[in-house]
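Exercise 7. Predict the joint structure of the components listed below.
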Amino acid sequence: MSNKQDIFTDDESIEKDSPLLHSISKENPFTVPENYFESLPSEIIEKCRTETQPKKWGEGILITLLGYKWKLLTITGCVVVICFFAIRLNNRPMSYEVMAQNIPDSLIVEHLDNNIAAINESTLEDFSEGISLGQDAENVKSESDSTNNDEDIVTYLVDNNISVTDISNE
Amino acid sequence: MADEISDSELLEMFRLESSRNQAFHFLVNKYQKRVYWQVRRIIIDHDDANDVVQNVFIKVWKNLGNFKEASSLYTWLYRIATNESLTFIKQKRANMFVPFDSVSNSLSRKLEDDSYFSGDAIQKKLQKAILTLPDKQRIVFNMKYFDNIKYEQMSEMLDTSVGALKASYHHAVKKIEAFLKNN
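Solution:
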């Protein structure tokens, strides 16, 4: 209860409680450069004019970015690390398998149709083998089952004298 | 001239496109000193205070058109000045990556080398004691002790109850007295 009364006492009683503080002059100890208040209004008005003018494209962004220099440094560091790993991943050679997947079936059929005279069945067999030879060692290993299937198909086509045109027409 | 114009006249002039610039000029002239000293007591350093004061008046320029006159113009200005000062200190704290204590120490050091401080040793000691207070307590103390602003007006400016302000001032005085005794 007494604490509460202490808190709500007026200024005079606080002055009595703190004689050291109230012995110090209340005069303003701070000063300003000469003619500061004479020039301040024009400085402020000039700044207001500049602020209200539309900013050049990118200027605002740059200022904001500079204001957050620490955050910017952290973000830049993260971006550099991400880019480093992204470039490393991108530099891996693209397998023939992936390239072949990007070619539409219709184009392959059209190509075979147009060049069927120049391609004999043994070339087709070589081509089928070539796909597996051109792949990375890892891919060859992992895709060995599918390569074997391709070879089987080619062997079957050759043994049974079936042309590619017949298949594409079907 | 600027001191003679009432706030309502200033606002009326500002609302008219033709007299807006002149009204703002009068407003800056009328309130610049009071705003500056309020900011300077919080920020301590003149150059920093100058930047904050300019930002305060830029905000005023941008927002005066929307001022609803729910409070007096000076109360509104004082509130902007206080908020801008606190924001400045917060930014400084964030940029320095240091806790509260170090900012107050850095301000104390500035006070030591400040060429725009003309007070005697005991006045410097008082300023150092004030710097040990938490930001809001420091503002309350400055407003009451140096500017002698009434608690009711302070309550409007700082959006805090009169009771809380009295308590805050009382605690500030006790802490300062203890600092002066022990240092």
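Discussion. Chain A touches chain B at residues 6-9, 11, 14, 17-18, 20-21, 24-33, 36-37, 40-41, 43-45, 47-48, 51-52, 70 (CB under 8 Å).
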